[in-house]
């Protein structure tokens, strides 16, 4: 039992014993809470406020669910529990660093990626060191008080999000297109029903992916086109969900060079690719009964004597001409061929692309919401419901032909920039020109498409209860939840 009289964060004599801790999220207004934390009833602490109790052989953290917990419902309630537990985990690791196991007494799942801190510092040794012979075990393991399917599923979601964060965090010299493919192959080792194909530039050239390859012209680093085929559906030929992710492993802007300040953030410009491969891994681990194809065009975008120049025009895979007005708008160039390939090759029912595409998204939403453009109300509604459940929040943006004049006015069919106004909207409209068989509205036969622009949410500059600073793995949990619901239909 808990003995509040032993409350102390500094009583090392007692703390030496305890390597196990437990977390009890509590509603501060309830009777049982009042005995342990009397003041909590009169002045209920806000969500995540944590008190750690040290006993002879255990550590217990009480973490507040906030003053209005009883009134919360659905997705909001789940998020409050996530924040409360996330804060308590952080507090335990802060004040009780000998703890190696944390038991969580929560009736909801932990679909959140707490306890993640990317570092390549050498002392103490980093688990992220790419040259490790043996993996370093996690310092703290989280366990549920009562085992449940929901908990296990939550762990899969959280690990997938953390994988995306890791892929994004790695500096570009350690996460080239080649290394990205190797890492994904290693992550999928032993996974059932999944096949991985790593295509090279010659393959892309044969397919006619000229806009994709136009971005790769400036770098000696070989471009790759990674494909994952997951066949979980009971019939092998069931129409798949196709996920496309932008994989620019470093974006200098090319000849239209970016300013130096904060350019290192562009090591994460493969965040879309990271999100879709990580989501696919979770989908395969959960053995969801659906078919999924993942496509990620991967390249660096560098300036050099062979780089694409502003004004160059390329014939895209679908035969349309594209003028490169600004070489820094390269994401849509690599996506256009990947989207066309994805929408012609696999008889997909749905195609979703994810990309760190436009700074306009950051201006519109900051780090809070991710912008979604979709031709289908039904697809948008399903994505939005999944994002709400996971608190991986989405906001629908206009996909409208009235933005067309901004990108249709050059010597080519399309121009890869449309000026500042509605920058996210013109980018989405550009991509739409490469979706084959697009069905607007409801249809059995056509293809539903959504474009998710994570440029604003790719990085957290301030920590939240369960997400530290740094790359976020934005939209991974929403995608996995979307797929899980799709599988239940
Ligand atoms: Zn760019």
Automatic annotation (TrEMBL):
CDD domains: Peptidase_M17
Family (UniProt): Belongs to the peptidase M17 family.
UniProt keyword annotation of Hydrolase present: yes
Organism: Mycena maculata
UniProtKB keywords: Aminopeptidase, Hydrolase, Protease
PROSITE patterns: CYTOSOL_AP
Pfam families, per database record: Peptidase_M17 (PF00883)
Domain of life of the native organism: Eukaryota
Any one GO biological process: proteolysis
Signal peptide: none
Entry GO terms, CC: cytoplasm
Protein name: Leucine aminopeptidase
Molecular function GO terms recorded: manganese ion binding; metalloaminopeptidase activity
Phylogenetic lineage: Eukaryota, Fungi, Dikarya, Basidiomycota, Agaricomycotina
Location of the Cytosol aminopeptidase domain: 326-333
Record InterPro entries: Leucine_aapep/pepB, Macro_dom-like, Peptidase_M17_C
């Amino acid at each position: 039992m808990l003995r509040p009289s032993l409350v102390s964060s500094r009583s090392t004599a007692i703390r030496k014993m305890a390597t196990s801790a437990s977390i009890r999220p509590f509603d501060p207004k309830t009777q049982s809470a009042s005995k342990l934390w009397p003041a909590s009833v009169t002045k209920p602490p806000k969500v995540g406020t944590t008190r750690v109790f040290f006993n002879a052989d255990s550590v217990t953290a009480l973490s507040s669910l906030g003053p209005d917990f009883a009134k919360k419902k659905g997705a909001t309630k789940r998020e409050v529990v996530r924040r409360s537990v996330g804060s308590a985990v952080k507090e335990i690791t802060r004040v009780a660093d000998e703890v190696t196991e944390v038991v969580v007494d929560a009736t909801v799942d932990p679909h959140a990626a707490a306890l993640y801190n990317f570092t390549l510092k050498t002392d103490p040794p980093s688990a992220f060191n790419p040259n490790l012979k043996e993996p370093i075990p996690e310092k703290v393991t989280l366990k549920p008080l009562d085992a449940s399917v929901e908990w296990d599923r939550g762990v899969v979601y959280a690990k997938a999000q953390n994988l995306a964060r890791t892929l994004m965090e790695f500096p570009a010299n350690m996460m080239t297109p080649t290394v990205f493919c190797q890492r994904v192959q290693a992550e999928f080792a032993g996974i059932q029903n999944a096949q991985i194909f790593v295509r090279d530039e010659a393959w892309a050239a044969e397919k006619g992916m000229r806009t994709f390859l136009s971005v790769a012209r400036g770098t000696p680093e070989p471009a790759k086109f990674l494909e994952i085929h997951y066949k979980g559906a009971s019939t092998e030929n069931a129409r798949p969900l196709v996920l496309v992710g932008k994989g620019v492993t470093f974006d200098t802007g090319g000849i239209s060079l970016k300013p130096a300040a904060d350019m290192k953030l562009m090591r994460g410009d493969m965040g879309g690719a990271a999100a879709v491969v990580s989501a696919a891994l979770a989908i395969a681990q959960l053995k969801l009964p659906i078919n999924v194809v993942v496509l990620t065009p991967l390249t660096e975008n560098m300036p050099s004597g062979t780089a694409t120049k502003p004004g160059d025009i390329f014939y895209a895979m679908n035969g349309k001409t594209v003028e490169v007005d600004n070489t820094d708008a390269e994401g849509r160039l690599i996506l256009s061929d990947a989207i066309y390939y994805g929408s012609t090759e696999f008889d997909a029912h749905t195609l979703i692309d994810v990309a760190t595409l436009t700074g306009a998204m950051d201006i519109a939403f900051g780090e809070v919401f991710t912008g979604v453009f979709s031709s289908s109300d039904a697809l948008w509604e399903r994505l939005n419901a999944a994002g709400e459940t996971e608190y991986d929040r989405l906001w629908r943006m206009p996909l409208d032909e009235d933005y067309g004049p901004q990108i249709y006015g050059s010597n080519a069919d399309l121009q890869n920039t449309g000026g500042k106004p509605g920058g996210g909207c013109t980018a989405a409209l550009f991509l739409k020109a490469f979706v084959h068989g697009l069905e607007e509205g409801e249809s059995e036969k056509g293809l539903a498409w959504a474009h998710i622009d994570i440029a604003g949410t790719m990085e957290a500059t301030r920590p939240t209860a369960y997400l530290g600073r740094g790359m976020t793995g934005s939209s991974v949990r929403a995608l996995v939840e979307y797929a899980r619901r799709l599988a239940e239909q």
